[in-house]
Design goal:
Length: 152
């Protein structure tokens, strides 16, 4: 009985979700780091799950929060963490979950448009090669505990 309910719920939530995003990607846990004082840049983090049977690719990003949005990766160069723009975006295999998180890949924002309030929610639009554009919420979190992300 419980198992039956579980299946019914899964199907229901899948249909509800599919109604919103057609055959799109699942994007979760979006947040943007409050910029450090005097720094006109910050980073967005989120998780992307590809629920489909075809590979896809995040190719570009835009947001109301900044003039310039870039997809970045972190890499070690001579024992120093550096970041680099990913001009070909981020590939996401079928059923893969890609996490953009502090210390790893991220969406970099430059030329910020507004002052960020911690706890406020804004949006970012992700453009996927196959799934197309998706606009998702990102919540501002305080800059503490983000010392892993060095630049500028
Ligand atoms: Cu960066």
């Amino acid at each position: 009985m419980y198992r039956y309910l579980g299946v019914a719920f899964c199907v229901w939530s899948f249909l509800a979700f599919a109604g919103h995003h057609e055959d799109g990607m699942h994007v979760m846990n979006g947040w943007v780091k409050e910029p450090l004082p005097g720094v006109d840049a910050t980073a967005v983090y989120l998780s992307i799950h590809n629920p489909r049977k075809v590979p896809d690719r995040l190719i570009s990003v835009s947001t109301e929060l900044a003039q310039i949005s870039e997809i970045h990766e972190m890499l070690m160069v001579d024992n120093v963490m550096k970041m680099r723009r990913l001009d070909s975006g981020i590939a996401i295999a079928p059923d893969e979950l890609v996490r953009l998180e502090p210390g790893g890949s991220h969406i970099m924002l430059f030329d910020l448009n507004k002052s960020f309030q911690v706890g406020e929610t804004y949006t970012v639009t992700l453009d996927f090669e196959r799934a197309g554009k998706m606009t998702v919420p990102i919540t501002v979190k305080a800059a503490v505990d983000s010392a892993q992300h060095h630049h500028h």
